[in-house]
Request: fold
Amino acid sequence: MTDTTHRSDASGTADGSDASGRAAELAALFPALHAPQYWTWGRYDALFSTVLPPDELVTNIHLVGFADGLVVLCRDDRNHWFLPGGTRERDESIAACLARELREEAGARLLGTPDWLGAHRCRTDDPTPYRPWQPHPEKAWLWGWAEVAVDSTPTNPADGEQVVEVRAVPADEAQRLLLAGHDAWWGELIGLAVELRRRAGQG
Reply:
């Protein structure tokens, strides 16, 4: 990835010499997250990897944000819990997208550089892209973790999810809330963030 505002604990050393070994270790620890998936809402075949995709494939960025050790979740007006993040705008950098989505959905800001957990590489059989400027038929959803501060209210733009609550909860509670409306791999995504944060000396 060409965006220089991030780093990855998951991808190994700078020359990538141990990336495959690290990826295999984490795949064994979090098998549901790494299993092939089909996302019916977008007709996507999706596969997670801790090896990061090229910047030009990344269309969506989401964050496991830690506020004083607690995981920040958002609840919308459909009573749906989710991690803050969303779709990149035309010509928007990864860093700018993440900062904007945190403000819009969580009223939060980054306290440091995000660490990327990995990404879902997705391929769809839809004939046209979700938005005209996006790569097609392949794209990537990027997942990260970072320390954040929740110090304002969500801006709730009219074209986004309407957030009615932002809550910082222990990791196991975050897993429970997310699993109420998502597949099992969401719990492991939180687990991966907790593990890599621990390895970074912040857990």
Notes: The longest helix spans residues 185-199. The chain has one domain: 19-199. The radius of gyration is 16 Å.
